């Protein structure tokens, strides 16, 4: 369960970053005063604890038991549901399946809304800035340069936000289908009728999770100038790594 829950935490943290970026564009002075390093650290810790804690009950539904296997004539360890699961499965499993759909989907929805708002605010501020720089020939030249710089910034921001959204869609959509299938067919789960199919699909979803985690790093490294600069400062001998 740990890779799955870590993925849900990743969705929530990505959403938090998108909210922060959106507020940076909409209310920059307020954000600068509010989003201090201490506040950000506290928010990240709180989000991680709350999201991970929402699923921690799943760690208590199974156990490892040692039973005698007649065909092997020895004691073996098996994985099975425990008494807590059988006493509460009607509540726990329904809660988990709905929570596994709703929380990531809510995070993704907020991510899309904040990304769209960020793009809109950037373009709106660009138009206002260009409007104020169309008074004289000299100012027109300045306006042209500003427009070029803003257009480049807009393209980079839009490109990065679109890439983040697409990566999350590619990772989240198969998982939502996976959990909807469990709601439709209760036997599609571990240690039940369709155990093997469930396990095979789950492994592929784990692969998607690891790919998403890897892609995010290279995504921010290639498109985030501040992230790239800090990364090279920390691991690239003062930025020399980026010049090799």
Automatic annotation (TrEMBL):
Matching PANTHER family: G-PROTEIN COUPLED RECEPTOR, THYROTROPIN-RELEASING HORMONE RECEPTOR
Protein name according to UniProt: G-protein coupled receptors family 1 profile domain-containing protein
Membrane topology of this protein: Multi-pass membrane protein
Keywords associated with the record: G-protein coupled receptor, Membrane, Receptor, Transducer, Transmembrane, Transmembrane helix
Keyword Transmembrane helix: yes
Subcellular localization(s) per the UniProt record: Membrane
GO terms, molecular function: G protein-coupled receptor activity
